[in-house]
Amino acid sequence: MRVLLQRVSRAQVEVAGQTIARIGRGVLLLVGVTHTDTDAEAAYLARKIAQLRIFEDDAGKMNRSLLDIRGEALVVSQFTLYADTRKGRRPSFVHAARPEHAAPLVERLAAHLAALGVPVQTGRFGAHMQVHLTNDGPVTLWLERETAP
């Protein structure tokens, strides 16, 4: 499972011109799933995301977590995180999980975050989405956890 985390002051998702999700201060999470991912990866990444110290304290140091600041999370599925662009000009997505495997795991990541006390909003799996964000910092991190072979 791969997550591209962006610290935001606000973010929202629109589908067909309608806003379906909106958050204030927190993180936008673009989430990709591969074939071997399980709930264990979703749970691990949820804990990591909730506890990462990426928000500034009073001294301006990144010492506060999403939980510390009572921030929100916007979880958006993003199969293109598993694109392979090494050959040719068209990306291959053979490493991206099929929707029937990926959708429940994206939902599980969101559920694990919510269980940790993070208010969560989600995009719509498989929809053409317009994602709007104000990246704070900017702070953008790549997180990955894959099952051992």
Describe the SSE topology.
Layout: E1 2-15, E2 18-23, E3 26-32, H1 39-51, E4 55-56, E5 62-64, E6 72-77, H2 99-115, E7 120-122, E8 129-144
Parallel strand pairs: 3-6, 6-7
Antiparallel strand pairs: 1-2, 1-3, 1-8, 4-5
Keywords, separated by commas or semicolons:
2 helices, two-stranded antiparallel sheet, alpha/beta, 6-stranded mixed sheet, D-tyrosyl-trna(Tyr) Deacylase, Chain: A, 149 residues
Question: What would you say this structure looks like, in words?
Answer:
With 149 residues, this protein is an alpha/beta fold. It is 20% helix and 38% strand. It contains two helices and eight strands; from the N terminus they run βββαβββαββ. The protein has helices spanning 39-51, 99-115; strands at residues 2-15, 18-23, 26-32, 55-56, 62-64, 72-77, 120-122, 129-144. The strands form two sheets. Strands 1, 2, 3, 6, 7 and 8 form a six-stranded mixed sheet that branches. A two-stranded antiparallel sheet has the order 4-5. A hairpin with a 2-residue loop joins β1 (2-15) and β2.
| Main sheet summary | 6 strands, mixed
CATH superfamily label: D-tyrosyl-tRNA(Tyr) deacylase
Span of the ends, CA to CA:
14 Å
What share of residues is helical? 10-25%
Give the overall silhouette: globular
Low-pLDDT sequence parts: none
CATH topology label: D-tyrosyl-trna(Tyr) Deacylase, Chain: A
Number of domains: 1
Condensed summary:
This protein has a single domain (2-142), classed as D-tyrosyl-tRNA(Tyr) deacylase (D-tyrosyl-trna(Tyr) Deacylase, Chain: A), CATH 3.50.80.10. Helices cover 20% and strands 38% of the residues.
